[in-house]
Amino acid sequence: MSKRGRTDDDSRPPKRPKPDHVLQAVVEEIHFARQLQELLTFRQDGIQQLRGGIASFKAFLESVCYHRDEDRRSRQLAILHEFLDSEKPADANDTERPFLAQLWQAWSFASQNNNDHLCSQISALFALLVKTLSSILDFRDHGVLLCRTILQHQHLRMIRRSLDAPKHKDFLISPCLRLLTEVTSFDGGLLAKEVYKRREQTFEPMALRRNLGAFKTDQSEEEARRRPAIRTLTIRYILTHLKYLHQGGKADLLKNRPLCTSLFHFLQDDPADVIAELLSATEQHVLKDADLPRSAKAALLVEHNLERVTDIATRSSADHAAFQTAFAWLKAVCSEPSCGVLRISGWYPPGTDRFSEDTLRADAIDLGLDSVDFYDRDQKPNVRNTVLLTWIQTLRPHSNLRERELLLTCFRSAPELVAAYFAEKNMQLEPKLSNTWIGYASLLFEVVQLDLPAFLGYEDGWAQLPPQTYIMLDSILPRSLTQKVLTRCLNQSNDLIRFFAVRILVMALQKLSEVQLQLAKGSDSAVSKTELWKEASERLHEAFVERFPAMKDVVGAFRKIPNDDEHLLQQEAVTHLLRLCYEVLPLQAAAEPFDISAPLTAALVKTDPIATAEEALQSIRLEHLLQIARRSPGMRWLTKQGALEHSPLMTLLKIHAENVNDRQVRDLICGVLAEHSILSTASGLDALVAVLHHLAPVSEAVASFLDDCFSRANKQPVKYLDDMEAMVAKHADDHEGPRTLPSILPAVLGEQAAYVGNRPRKEQSEIATFIIGYFDLLRWTAEAKDGLELIRESFESLDRFQVLEELHDPKSTLLNVEISRAPIATEENVKATGPVHVLPFSAPSAESENHPELLKWSQKDLGLAIEDGDIAALMLCLSSQYPEIRSQALVQLHRVLEKVLESTLEDKMQIYFLLGELIETYEHPIETSSDATPYLVTCFATHALEIEIQPVHYLYPKINRFLNKGPAWRPSKLPTHLLKRTVLSEPEEDDSYWKEVQWVLDWLVDGTRTVDDLEILRKGKVFEQIMSLCSSPGSGARVKERVLELLWRVTFIEGGSTTLIKRTGSLSWLNMVPGEERIAGLMQGLRKRIVETCDQEEIEEWGGVSIDIM
Questions:
Q1: Quick check: 89 and 99 in contact, CB under 8 A?
Q2: Tell me, what DSSP letter sits at residue 451?
Q3: 127, 465, 762, 917 — which has fewest CB within 10 A?
Q4: DSSP 3-state of 54
Q5: Average pLDDT for residues 633-659, to the nearest whole number?
Q6: Exposure string over 657-687, b if 16+ CB within 10 A, otherwise e
């Protein structure tokens, strides 16, 4: 039915408008206290007069409170004091006639008759009166009396009725909230406890939560300050309680999680000053309250509240007044454990830092880390900081820098969050140059840059167990960076995407190296189960390789970058990546053939001065290339290449002559010269650098001459050694004793000096000056003096050998270019440090009582078990001192033999022959010295197994020919046979002679562990053969160190040192073998070790002289 419209008939009068019952109150000026009493007298028929009196009293209080009339203030205070004294009851506890009884009667009448405006006016008057009294010290007693009157039960019921009013009656709710706030904060919170004690009327959670939802969105900042919303007043009331309540009251208040959530729910719609007040109060009186329990603080820091504050801190405009306050609040929550939500934790989820009781049982089978039930079982770790983890998942760090800073702060404070975050975060990192991809890429780069936690995240030093592999790996190279993603990024044509991949891989490799170093420290500090830390390091290395791109892709990225100044930054980065691959992942780097000669040649050509901004990058790149070349087996140091006028070694030497303080370059040159047997002492190189530095810039004639001498020394080392030996023998004196020879380079210079006269006069003088200067400096080095003088005499008498300038002070010239090196092991510091720790070699490892390898291989795929070394470890069990271990190992090897035949391995027949011959050697020994197979035999089998799975290995043909000789091996003939096939035979490849010798030495060092092994080597005269290798001109420092390490391990075997002295003449040999300072120091340390561990009485009786004379 439609509404009836108004007719045009004017006979009916219009509807009378609704009268306005809210009449304007008349405000009178207060002159006397009696006047106030009359104005505030309550009569049911005088409501309008009462409202006028309330308005007059309110104006009077505002004048007093806000100092509006300073001239009359003293008079006003007297009037107020007189009025309040007159209203005091005789008994403060009298509920029938309370303080200011007329006003309470009026409020009660208004409440019963639903006169909301009068209720609002009276409650506002009380709020203003309490506020006024709290600001004047003389009125403290009146204020306390008034507050206690307000807290009487009948009065709180009226306040509660007003607080429960509908939300649209904000004029009724607001003054009651202000009144309770003033009462709570009166006199520094004197009555806060009393207010909270009556929380059924004053702090009812449901009413407060409803009022926290009453906010206004259409108000300006100025309007919000003048007439605050109900939510604003409720927030201030709750904050007043948090500020003044005792610890128990605050903890009880914060237990109400729904109320705490509502406190922050509409935070984005609050005025900026209210937000700042809320955050400051909660931080000061809750988060930083040391007496408040963590559980109470955590109730305030739920995920919902953190998200609301995040909206203000990161997603509001920068000119928001609470922008910085909210951000600082969040950073404090993320970084300070005292705030209540952050729990300090590293890479150890709860319960993963120690062994279980079953693992520590004496009869438990040791399976390594597989025996730890939780280790690497779950790829999603349990975390202590669940609240922070849930919150950071809502952040957008790829698009908001402030949110990224918060995320990284959480990662630094709780490193456990890194792996957990990326386990749940799905990032789209397919290489596409968009803003999203750039944001994700920069975020991941900063995550990889994070520092390692101390002790790998364990609070009290080193834990019993290492961290789990996937947790460490995700912190090194986050899970989003898969091998597929990184490979695609490296192969991109876009420079920025490729540069990102290179830089993040560089950071990851550096971090992996740091983690492995920390794992090594943890292994050294572990009380028990130290092998678990080593196994964890191996697992981490394998997992990292699986996530790391293939080496061919890294080399491809290196080759794609143009060799010009515009791409110099990218060149340095990818060269650094290659260097780290050779240092941290040497096996993977060696698997991909890569010739560094051409890039190094190009870099050496560019060593001329360039722009200042590019000079540093070019120098750093050259350093990377040199380190790669040092580790690259295919580097041709003594061959001219490309645009170089000289060989890479000579070019590098010229550069080093300009900057003689670069220790890395000096060590590199020293290693190359020693490897090619050109110089045998570091001091000889110092003399060479000194004379070139004196002649700098080095002329082309000198450089070409020295380069030619390097080439001759490398091609014909035996010829020059024979010449020096003949020269020394010809001029030998009658005195007895060993004669030492200088390095090959002085001999080559002496021979080529005879041909200097055929050059132009200027070149003659330059070269002659170089040669004479070099020999002058050699007098102050460790080179053999006899041979040097004979070589010098052979060319100084030549015609046309004129010197431009002689060195006036050779010793000072040499000292100016010397670089401090690590101390050499000499006889003096051997005495100071003791014999065991002088040499950098390890003693033979003792057999463990536990043998997890007996069963460990069966838990893996056969191919993986071979690659991981489980089958090799099983082979070694045949040499165990425990018969039961040998029996179990034999049974397991038979099972392995069956599985090999059933497998699809490409080299299964070679592996089958190897295992079968080892088993046959154990079951039907041709030579019986003990029940156990010597370690030399089982170690040979393990080393041969590594060759059988690598058909391209340089010893692959020789090992297979040996396996085809017969079904079993003769242990006593095994070392001599292999030495004959390597040391005394041609290599399978042209440049693999010393590689084969090195392999045999590695096997002998690994297999020499027991008395049986020592007897095999003694009877086969193996020591004499390998000791003669050190006298070979082609034997480098590595071969000599390996020989010394073999003798070192022999000294740990019972009777080993005595055997070395009586059967091999090792003490005399150590005095005769030449070598550079480091090798000489090692020999001195080995000599000391042999003398101290031998049977000195037996040796002196055998030799007839004191052992010191020997």
A1: yes
A2: P
A3: 762
A4: helix
A5: 79
A6: beebebeebbebbbbbbbbbbbbbbbbbbbb
DSSP conformational letter for 925: -
Instruction: Give the tokens for residue 217.
Output: 């969105």
For 293-349, the pLDDT digits (tens) are 888 888 889 999 999 999 999 888 877 888 899 999 999 999 998 888 998 888 888
CA separation for the pair 426, 448 (Å, rounded): 17
Rounded Cα distance between 135 and 138, Å, is 9
Number of other residues whose CB lies within 10 A of the CB of residue 756: 23
User: How many whole angstroms separate alpha carbon 606 and alpha carbon 619?
Assistant: 10
Answer yes or no: are the C-beta atoms of 904 and 938 closer than 8 Å: no
What is the rounded average pLDDT for all residues in the chain?
83
pLDDT value for 545: 93
Supply the pLDDT for residue 821. 47
Largest CA distance in the chain: 159
Tokens in use for 1003?
Answer: 């096997």
Q: What is the SS3 assignment for 520-559?
A: HHHHHHCCCCHHHHHHHHHHHHHHHHHHCCCHHHHHHHHH
- What amino acid occupies position 58? K
Quote the radius of gyration of the chain (alpha carbons, Å): 45
Q: Cα–Cα distance between 329 and 267 in angstroms, integer?
A: 14
Contact 692, 657 (CB under 8 A): yes
| Separation between Cα atoms, residue 586 and residue 541, nearest integer Å | 11
Report the C-alpha gap between 919 and 917 in whole angstroms: 5
Amino acid code (one letter) for 878: L
**Residues 529-539: tens digit of each pLDDT:** 677 888 888 88
- Kindly state the DSSP code that residue 857 receives in the 8-state scheme: G
Query: What is the C-alpha to C-alpha distance for residues 462 and 297, in angstroms, rounded to an integer?
Result: 31
Secondary structure of 244-269 in HEC code, one letter for each residue: HCCHHHHHHHHCCHHHHHHHHHCHHH
Burial of 932 (0-12, 13-18, 19+ CB in 10 A): buried
Q: What is the pLDDT at residue 240?
A: 94
CA atoms 814, 816, 822, 827: torsion sign: positive
Structure tokens belonging to residue 61? 């209080």
Residues 208, 240: contact at Cβ < 8 Å? no
Residue 1017 CB coordination number (10 Å): 25
CA pair distance 197, 93, nearest whole angstrom: 18
Neighbours of 951 (CB within 10 A): 12
Q: What tens digit of pLDDT does each residue of 775-831 get?
A: 888 877 766 566 777 787 777 766 556 655 666 666 677 776 766 443 333 333 333
* Burial tier of 405 (Cβ tally within 10 Å: 0-12, 13-18, 19+): middle
More confident residue, 212 or 372: 212
Q: Are 604 and 588 in contact (CB under 8 A)?
A: no
The most confident of the ranges 22-26, 147-151, 613-617, 754-758 is: 147-151
pLDDT digits (tens, 9 = 90+) for 974-1029: 998 888 888 888 888 777 788 888 899 989 988 998 888 888 888 888 888 888 88
Among 1-5, 72-76, 442-446, 491-495, the least confident range: 1-5
d(CA 18, CA 32): 39
**In a 3-state reduction of DSSP, which class is residue 943?**
helix
Contacts of 48 (CB under 8 A, 6+ apart): 23, 25
Question: What is the Cα–Cα distance from 838 to 825, expressed in whole angstroms?
Answer: 6
Q: How far apart are CA 992 and CA 504, in angstroms?
A: 37
Calpha distance 1001→859 (Å, rounded):
33
Residues 6 or more apart whose Cβ sits within 8 Å of residue 903: 862, 863
DSSP secondary structure of 122-177:
HHHHHHHHHHHHHT-GGGHHHHHHHHHHHTSHHHHHHHHHHHTS-TT-HHHHHHHH
Q: Please give the share of the chain, as a percent, with pLDDT higher than 70.
A: 87
